[in-house]
Design brief:
This protein is an alpha+beta fold and about 270 residues long. It contains twelve helices and seven strands.
């Protein structure tokens, strides 16, 4: 797992702290907060410009102060992300799967690529080129996302169960790269196993909490989009996902409030 990119850290800042500030942060406060995380001002400004070009941020002056606000679409995605990041539903085999079957005309191949990216981003696994599956509890999320992206006209959704012939545990290992996901979880555990001690031993509790919490949350928020949320009975032996989720929950409870204290002092300072 690589160090978070500046644009990813900026999105985390906006998700954590901008929504209570009219979805807006000043350029200066973003530069100062990212500076606390080791990102130079030029890197921050360049990343903000890219996010503006992508329609994530919009330039807005408040009280003659230059800054950027979240776009409506970015705000909606962050709200959806909250459910992914801070809740950890796990299916049972009895729930079955939601199956997506799609067909996109060759003349609209760009839609095919968009559809595949969207399904992968929701944790769907590939059964075959036009058949993808996920645990059934993802049905509502998939329906909403496909409609929002205007892709629902290419798709049929089914609620299905696996009846054979190979063992389901064997099949899910083909539909998802579970070993790769497990390595991501193991890496996060390795990187943050001593975070509690680092925070406790620091001389500046609120700043250290911020320095640990924001990068950790930035790294964590990728993982619920990779992990399909399969039943525990179908996961590889020694699966690191549960340990990573427990570590995240503990550090979230420990560091969220002091990290916020540091961030708001910088934003309003």
């Amino acid at each position: 797992m690589a160090e978070p990119a500046p644009r990813q850290l900026i999105l985390t800042l906006y998700g954590l702290y901008a929504r209570d500030e009219h979805s807006w942060l000043s350029v200066g406060s973003v530069v100062r907060l990212l500076g606390d995380l080791g990102v130079d001002a030029a890197g921050v400004r360049s990343s903000i410009s890219r996010l503006k070009r992508r329609g994530v941020l919009t330039a807005l002056r408040l009280d003659q102060v230059a800054g950027y606000a979240l776009s409506e679409s970015a705000l909606e995605l962050l709200q959806e992300g909250d459910r992914r990041i801070f809740t950890r539903p796990r299916a049972s085999e009895a729930h079955g799967f939601v199956q997506v079957v799609f067909s996109v005309p060759e003349a609209e191949r760009d839609k095919r690529h968009t559809l595949r990216r969207a399904l992968a981003g929701m944790g769907f696994g590939t059964v075959s080129a036009g058949v993808w599956v996920a645990p059934a509890w993802r049905h509502e999320e998939a329906t909403h996302a496909l409609q929002r992206l205007g892709l629902d006209r290419y798709v049929d959704l089914f609620h299905v169960r696996h009846d054979g012939f190979a063992p389901l545990r064997e099949r899910v290992a083909q539909w998802w790269d579970l070993d790769a996901i497990d390595r991501e979880y193991a890496d996060l555990v390795r990187r943050y196993a001593d975070a509690h001690r680092r925070w406790k031993d620091s001389g500046s509790a609120v700043r250290t909490a911020f320095e640990i919490y924001v990068p950790m949350l930035t790294e964590w928020r990728r993982l619920p989009y990779l992990d399909p949320g399969l039943p525990a009975s179908l996961l590889p032996d020694g699966w690191h996902g549960r340990r990573a989720a427990d570590l995240f929950a503990d550090l979230d409870a420990l560091l969220r409030t002091p990290a916020r204290e540091h961030a708001l002092a910088t934003i309003h300072g």
